[in-house]
Structures are given as C-alpha cells and as structure tokens.
Amino acid sequence: MEQTRAGGDVLLSARDLTVQFPSQHGAVTAVDEVSFDIRAGEVISLVGESGCGKSTLGRAIIGLLPNSAKITGSLTYKGTELVGLDQGKLTQYRGTEMSMIFQEPMSSLNPVFRIGDQLAEAIQIRRARKRDKPGNRSVKEEVLEYLGQVKINDPGNVIDRYPHELSGGMRQRTMIAMSLAQRPSLLIADEPTTALDVTTQAQILSLMSELTREYDMSLLFITHDLGVAGMIASRIVVIYAGEIVEDSPVDGVFTETLHPYTKGLMASAPSAFKGGKRIEAIRGSMPNPAQTIVGCKFHERCPYVMDRCVKTKPRLLDHGKDRMVRCFLYDS
Ligand SMILES: Nc1ncnc2c1ncn2[C@@H]1O[C@H](COP(=O)(O)OP(=O)(O)OP(=O)(O)O)[C@@H](O)[C@H]1O
Ligand SMILES: [Mg+2]
Fold first, then answer.
1. Which ligand 1 atom sits nearest the alpha carbon of residue 58?
2. Integer Cα distance of 46 and 53 in angstroms
3. Which atom of ligand 1 is nearest to the CA of 56?
C-alpha cells in the first residue's frame, strides 16, 4: 500500500470517481470526478447540503448503487480496483472489510425479526467470514455487549423486541451495533446521529471515536452539519453539487475557512451556532444535477463571484498544509 505524508497506509483511494443516474432530462451527475484518500485509522467527514451526493458516494464505495447507476473513474481498496468488480467479489468486501450505517435505519432492519436475532446473525456471518475465534463467548453474550456499547439501556429486554417497538434513536443505535459487529476496517456512517437529540448525539459521536481507535477502523462520517463533522473527524471533505470544493485537516477548516461555500456552511451549521449570532442560510439553491454548468458550480450563490468564475471551471488546487480548495480566490 502507498505510504502517505501522515505515515498511515492509504486504505481507500478514489480518483475522478463519477456516478450518474439516467433521468428524463438527461444524465444526473450525483458524484462528479471525486478524488480523495482514506488512510488507515483516519476519521473523515463528508459534508454538504441535501442532494449534493454524499449518500451516493458512500454507496459507490461500498458497492451498493442501483443497477441504473453508471460509475466511472477509479476506486481502489488496499490496492484492488473496485470499479467494475463483479458483484460476488464486492459482496465479499462489504461483508468483511467495509460496513455502512444507512441514513434510514428502518430500511436496513428487518421488521419481522427481533433485534437480538438480527444482531446475532450479523455476528455469526462475521465469525464465519473472518474465521474469528470467538473464545468462550457465546453469540448472545456478544449481542448484549454490542448493545451495551452503543449505550442501549436494558439490552436483555431490547433483544426480544421488534424494530417497530424501538424509538428512532434506539433503532439507529442498533444499526451502529450491527455495523460494529462486522468489525469492518472501513465504516461508512451516513448521517447516523441526525435523528438523535443533542445529548445522545454527542454520546454516540464520542462512542464512535472511541471504537474507531479501539478497533483501528477508518470512518467515513457523512453529515450535513459542519459542527458535527468538526466534533468527530480529523479531516473534512466538503462536497458541493457532487464535487469536492475543500479537503482539509479539521483545524484548518475552522481556523481559516477557505471556500466560500464552506464559509456559508459554517455560518449556517446549527451545532456551531454561537449565542447571539443569527444562523444564516446560504442564499439560493444547488444547481439541477442534470444541468451542465459552465464555470464554478457555486458561482450563482457566491458572494465573492468574479468574471472568471462564470466562464471557467476552477480546479481543486493544492493550498499547502495538506489542504485542497476549488476556488479562483486562491489561484494566484
Ligand atoms: N437512485 C437514484 N436514481 C436517480 N437519482 C438519484 C438516485 N439516488 C440519488 N439520486 C440523485 O443524486 C443526487 C445526490 O443524491 P444523494 O442522495 O446522494 O444526496 P445526499 O447528499 O445524500 O442528500 P441528503 O443530505 O438529502 O441525504 C440527487 O440529485 C438525487 O436526486
Ligand atoms: Mg443522503
């Protein structure tokens, strides 16, 4: 594996990764030439507003896009190219190397099976696939342990319940437990705390940080909230209309925000809200993803727009200090 500046190995590498869906108005480009790396043990947050392509990118990585999706570019995991790999091999990766917590927990939990049985199945699959030696621990003991780890009260009672009998927050915690039970090297968590109250959200974030370190996992944490991203990640990748507009270590994003869109997200992030300051929405809305944009995709909403932004598309520029930004303001 390629050795990186930070010393960690590159686990996953996307290069010019593009995902398109067919539509009546032509192809919808949900992910547009995305290039970034995830290193072993790294926690990266993917941030952007609704519809910018976060879930599509997560699904592309784990190989769970609908058949209608057209994926181009390159996605390597531990040096193996995943784009174009047959479904059987992808399933192997999904089960042993990567796991995803989906945005809608009800769509991933089977309504007709008890929580304990679903978690037990995930553990049994992992034990078989990874040839884990469970020692003296029974599957039930492990089920209770994972439910305890995601701070579900009274796990002994919860294992006998069906998904619809749990609150939204408990269902999301169960999903986190199911993903952790697979002991993945890479966990993709798609808005896993959005449905939770602020206190529970903070607990889950710190739990996920702890487990990421404990199990030496990498985490791709998807959120629309820059404040939440800052709480968990060491690196933030900001996406706008399918494109990376800023990629930076977390400290840099908060001390010297570069991209005008990131600045807008900062001003409108609910969790970064500071007393006395109004939350400002970014004016306008994202362009239609079926439309071809000349120039910068953000130019219509950008308070710093210049002539060249309307005419020419900016590249993702190296800004030094391990930072990348797609904006002519930094193109000297
Ligand atoms: N299966 C699909 N078929 C057609 N278009 C799709 C499909 N899935 C996603 N899209 C489109 O791709 C774009 C990106 O959607 P995606 O769900 O990835 O965004 P997101 O950033 O996860 O949004 P949210 O924050 O609301 O979850 C949107 O324009 C969406 O309509
Ligand atoms: Mg989504």
1. 18
2. 10
3. 18
How many A from CA of 31 to the centre of ligand 1? Answer: 9
Cβ < 6 A, ligand 1 pocket: 21, 28, 30, 48, 50-56, 66, 103, 224, 289
- Dist. CA 50 → ligand 2 center (Å): 7
List all residues 6 or more positions away from 24 whose beta carbon is below 8 Å from its beta carbon.
none
Measuring CA to CA, which residue among 112, 202, 203, 123 is closest to residue 162?
Answer: 112
Region of 84 (left: φ > 0; alpha: ψ -120 to 50; beta: rest) is left
* pLDDT tens-place string over residues 136-186: 789 999 999 999 988 898 999 999 999 999 987 788 889 888 988 888 999
Atom of ligand 1 nearest to the CA of 23: 4
List the domains of the chain with CATH numbers: 10-97+186-279 (3.40.50.300), 108-183 (no CATH)
Long-range contacts of 327-331 (CB under 8 A, 24+ apart): 327/245, 327/258, 327/259, 327/260, 327/296, 328/296, 329/258, 329/260, 329/304, 330/258
**Structure confidence by residue, pLDDT tens digits, 214-243:** 878 999 999 999 999 999 999 999 999 999
